[in-house]
Write a structure and sequence with these properties.
Blueprint lengths: L5 E5 L3 E7 L2 E9 L6 H11 L5 E8 L5 E5 L9 H10 L5 E8 L6 H17 L4 E5 L1 E9 L3 H10 L3 E7 L2 E9 L3 H9 L4 E5 L2
Antiparallel strand pairs: 1-7, 2-3, 3-6, 4-5, 4-6, 8-10, 8-11, 9-10
Helix pairs in contact: 2-3
Length: 202
């Protein structure tokens, strides 16, 4: 990913259709952050578009660019998954899955035709969703007395930290995501509060 403090992704699911010589290529894009989500997502798309001839896909998750997978699902090698992935790469996206469902229209498109169709369908669906810029965050676990909740929340709001989990009782446990580019400032401010325990989350 080109910028260390931010990354680009999509926040919502969308669908677009590309047609070529009778074949229909239906592209579905969705936000996607864990490999565990892959099978259920693919299964639900297969249920939504039964009897299609191919369900080709590409996804990328994480910030190092190394967590990705592509599939041609029976199309000639390199004609589907790679072109879809190329679109994800060109847009510098991560945490995203694109599945292109093909209904065969009876006319063979040949290798260049297939590459073009899968690439076009993927590019088309990305035009239908807003691409958003998200901050790269570092996760921390906080443990503190309920009485200082207000001070903690003020800092979180001011520095745009995400509250990922919270368990509020007499003692509060909270997991927060701190923007990487403000990490030192936020930790410094939090450590300034008496009686707070801060540990880096795994």
């Amino acid at each position: 990913m080109k910028h260390a403090d931010f990354y680009y992704t999509v926040e919502q699911r969308s669908v677009a259709e590309y047609k070529d010589k009778g074949s229909r290529f239906i592209a579905v894009v969705l936000p996607f952050t864990s490999v565990d989500e892959f099978k259920p997502n693919l299964e639900s798309i297969k249920k939504e578009y039964p009897k299609a001839s191919h369900y080709c896909f590409a996804y990328r998750i994480g910030l190092d660019g190394n967590m990705y997978r592509v599939s041609d699902d029976g199309e000639p090698s390199g004609t589907a998954g790679k072109p879809i992935f190329g679109v994800i790469e060109n847009r510098l996206l991560t945490d995203v899955l694109i599945v292109v469902v093909r209904y065969f229209g009876g006319t063979l498109l040949g290798v260049p035709g297939l590459i073009n169709a899968y690439r076009s369908a993927a590019a088309l669906v990305l035009q239908t969703v807003p691409v958003i810029q998200k901050q790269v965050e570092k996760k921390y676990h906080l443990h503190f007395d309920y009485t200082i909740m207000n001070d903690v929340m003020k800092i979180c709001k001011y520095y745009n930290c995400s509250v990922l989990k919270q368990d509020v009782q007499l003692f509060c446990d909270m997991q927060i995501g701190i923007p990487k580019n403000r990490l030192d400032e936020v930790l410094f401010k939090l450590q300034d509060i008496r009686g707070i325990e801060i540990t880096a989350a795994k």
